[in-house]
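=== RUN LOG ===
request id: a7f3
mode: sequence -> structure
chains: 1
length: 71
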Amino acid sequence: MLTEKRLNNTIYLIFHIAECFSSRHHMTKKEFLEFDKKYDILGYISECPDVFDSLTDDEIIEELERYVSQY
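=== RESULT ===
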């Protein structure tokens, strides 16, 4: 069961990670959302938010780049 605190933390992580990834790759919000449609990055984050919660911004981006490279 998803507690309100966990849900709020997951929402924050999704927002923060989307901002970091977009910034690193010079993407607009619209471009990031199109990219997400293809790779379901936000779904990946929401499946395992605890993993991302303990990573630095650079480590998060590296993890997402590894995830995307699998496609």
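=== NOTES ===
The chain is about 80% helix and 0% strand.
Residues 4-24 form the longest helix (21 residues).
=== END ===
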